[in-house]
Design goal:
Layout lengths: L6 E4 L13 E5 L8 H4 L6 H9 L2 E5 L18 H16 L11 E3 L3 H6 L1
Parallel strand pairs: 2-3, 2-4
Antiparallel strand pairs: 1-3
Organism: Daphnia sinensis
Pfam family, one: Esterase
Protein name: Esterase
Length: about 120
């Protein structure tokens, strides 16, 4: 997309030991949020670190534009967030971290938009 977007990656403590590959969970922020929301706006300060250890997985919290809905705009080339996630971010995470790089193993969970998206 020719722009810089941020993401945070949380690995389990066991990541530094050995060469095991891990499933990856992508946690998406809400419409006016940012990639740090999952780290800063939860009631448990170390929630993501605890979950990464409990479920032995890598957690990625990507940041995209406000009210992006994580889709590709039919009008603006600068708003192609679905393409960014699928063709840029996930391959970069798979290249940089020891993930189980299988399309069927890439779940995501949205911070606030899940209910609204289900309505449509």
């Amino acid at each position: 997309m020719q722009k810089t977007l941020s993401a945070a990656v949380t690995t389990p403590d066991s990541y530094s030991e050995g060469n095991q590959r891990y499933p990856t969970l992508y946690l998406l922020h809400g419409g006016s949020g940012a990639f740090g929301d999952w780290h800063q706006k939860t009631t448990e300060p170390d929630l993501l670190h605890r979950l990464a250890n409990q479920y032995n997985l890598i957690i990625v919290t990507p940041g995209v534009g406000p009210a992006s809905y994580y889709y590709d705009s039919p009008l603006l080339d600068s708003v192609r967030y679905e393409t960014y996630m699928v063709k840029e971010l996930i391959p970069e995470i798979d290249k940089t971290y020891r993930t189980l790089a299988k399309k069927s193993l890439v779940p995501s969970l949205d911070f606030r938009w899940a209910v609204m998206e289900r309505l449509y």
